[in-house]
Amino acid sequence: MREESLTFLEQLVNAPSPSGFEQPAQSVVRDYAAQFAGEVRTDVMGNVIASLNPAGKPRVMLAGHCDEIGFMVRYITDSGFIHFSPIGGVDAHLVPGQKVRIHTSRGHVLGVVGKKAIHLMEPEERKKVLQFHQQWIDIGAASRRDAERRVSIGDPITFATTFDRLHRDVVTARGFDDKMGSFVVLEALRLASRMKPKAALFAVSTVQEEIGLRGATTSAFAIEPDVAVAVDVTHGTDYPDADKKRFGDVKLGAGPVLHRGANMNPVVVDRLLAAAKKARVKHQMIGVPGRSGTDAWAMQLVREGCASCVVSVPVRYMHTPIEVLNLRDLDAAAKLLATFIADLGPRVDFIPT
Hints:
This protein has two domains: 3-68 and 174-342, 3-Layer(aba) Sandwich (Aminopeptidase); 70-159, Elongation Factor Tu (Ef-tu), domain 3 (Beta Barrel), CATH 2.40.30.40. The protein is 27% helix and 27% strand. It has nine helices and 17 strands. The strands form three sheets. Strands 1-2-12-3-13-16-14-15 form an eight-stranded mixed sheet, with helices on both faces. The chain is globular.
């Protein structure tokens, strides 16, 4: 991966962006997109839309959501401990013992999620998962008043992990789901800008996907795309005890994942396969018989309907503080999408036959 792109990825995943609080990450997106796009704008929802050749045909929308799972401050006890609720799908049993950052108007506050020590637990207690309302954050405050000088009700919270390299191209961070999707659509825009596409390209860093595909719904309504591709994560199944019979055989470093199913327009799938061959991008395939759970689900139903599809990147340990992926898969996904866009023209028909 080129150095400038890696810097962008690292800055993006380290920026806090729980659903509804995405603008620190979107600021990184805007700065990067401005180098390659004809126009960069932010809509009322907070989506960042970077366009290239907006008068072209067909109208193509690439969407990667920049919001991540996290938490919100809900209550402060008289003793200064903070109770919180999850934003998005957080696994409750992973949270105790984690360092977190509370993002306030005055900067971030470091805290730890505490729990009763194992020495003080009854045997039956050790077998139970603590529900979120039974957990608390300790910021070292002496009282409610002391805590309220530093944090406020409604402040967003993220895990305190940051981008790190494990080995060669294998890296770990919180929030690869799906800030790496925003990264890929902006990289595809960068590559496509050199190809002078006939299509109109709208690369969108969407918001609030983790709580209902909300940013994709509104931005697709405004853009009116003819074809839309969501870039998101999928489960890498190359780890011990993965059930490949249920979830497919998906490996990190083996290329982006294409999908077949009701959420995927078959013409778009075929053209993505052709683009992969042309660009010499190795890829993987999985079947999705129902809801994809991605922004493509919302974009498919915009106005009178849109030819939608999903391109995924394999990630291990999704929705944890230590998601893992291979950088080569990101580069390959961006190259695939740029080639797909360059091969589109005004006469392309996405109606299935």
